[in-house]
């Protein structure tokens, strides 16, 4: 199904919910990014989704609606849009009894013209009155959100809050023309009320509207959600301000990560997609117009300002409201490829056999290979991405290069002071930190403990590991490693290619002293069945698909697989190829090769050292950094990577790990590379010699009067003064590394 067809189908379900009611003190808008306030009345809005009658029990809906035994059409939205207007009694005990609103509150739903009229001409969208039927907590999603925020709260810099970064942080009511108002973010990491955060953020409201002129079409529920899958969201950002401009806008992206990662029963999805205030409550669809779930407000990291867009899967909502909602459409045909019965049950049976989780993935791919060929290749590349931690809680990503346990990562993880960090604990320049208690060999992943209820911890280290080749260790014992690494006595690498995850100790093998931000680690013990990355040295074309894989934002305590963010190659910066690279560029006749990639895929702190891969799942670059605003807020979609062609000596070395001279190629000074990675303009070439001037002109220039001699004297004195000042500065900075401007 083409994208326009998916959009056209999805428009049948997307609505905007408007709630307006008395607010004499202007207090109802305190938890909302935008609102309208006029003459003692506040108006709030959010997005919502119409449900076909195949997804809910009509008799139960009739009882809740309570009007002439009429079966309503149900609308699902977020509870936060109606909660400010609940009666005081119901707000104090929100879990019991039907919801009660304060007098004078009106709820309306805006539907597409084709759903609100029998005419062939769709016409303009129309408002339909609605009634609140129930509020429902989603325990699985609330627990997932609670687990994530608890695991990420080891330090103040990793505190989270719920809300949109576009919202201001003031507290007083503001004029109606000030469209985007403040949002009182619900902060965690300070009060520690993680349970309240999870429940309030994931709570939904179910509304009822009178029968529509047209029936809501049947829909198919997405049977499986995995990283990299296509997403289409419809919503009305800022919709209450002007529905003409914002009603049912679309956003397109993909699934970045799933929670819990080791189960087919997803309770929370992280989306790599544009999210704006007001889109919460909107429906989210997959590639074949299969329903995935609804949007909720994002998590926002206080230190970096990075937002994590969240989606509640339909299965989690239907499970929480099993008396009213159905997991699968009743009397509706299932999609192609799922005619063999209960697909989820088959998946659970496969997962219950812990001996071969890879077998589970192969089974799933058998069904989805024809639908997601590129995602399958990219998912296979994820097995080569690992999590690298240092003993003080800093983590970053890494890429497995070969079966001998050679890991490629960034040098700024080990030498942060070279790249503008004052301390290793800093969150700047792509790496991330947290207080680790820490991941002992007897501790199990937080994911399994939280969501699957495992009571027994599992060892994170495999029972049998291979030692590193002793010849390699002896060879590198003569290679001088900077003495500063004596402080990093506990470098550990988590390999995600198998279950349970494998934690291995590692040592620093090489740190580039040249302009490139790269380092090599060697696993001290090498597990079996490694899945090294496949490399593509070709220069990627502009606009080609690019996927960034890494451990951004969520550290080792969260227990996530690496996240996947998609985009395109936005820019390729080239430079003259050094003669020492000639072995890797035999067909290059122009003398240039790529030295920097810019992509539109999101890169978050902790994702540095990850891989940029193409649609074939082949690595085209090493993630190095993203950009920041002057105030420290991360710009995720402006990021920089080192192309594989520039790292050719490392990949050549990884083949047999014998020739150390290959690594020393990268240590050589290179003015062009240094200029590119410092974000400086190219060095100006030397000016050409002056042309032969007429003898008469030269003679005139030699005739200096008193004024010209005095000007020359002053210029020389000024030059001497500048040199003296520069000399003193150079003496102070002689032992300092010039930081990058990234």
Automatic annotation (TrEMBL):
One GO location term (cellular component): peroxisome
Molecular function GO labels: serine-type endopeptidase activity
Organism, scientific name: Lithocarpus litseifolius
A family per Pfam: Trypsin_2
Name of protein: Glyoxysomal processing protease, glyoxysomal
InterPro entries given in the database record: Peptidase_S1_PA (IPR009003), Peptidase_S1_PA_chymotrypsin (IPR043504), TYSND1/DEG15 (IPR039245)
Gene3D superfamilies in the cross-refs: 2.40.10.120, Trypsin-like serine proteases
Biological process according to GO: protein processing
Annotated SUPFAM superfamilies: Trypsin-like serine proteases
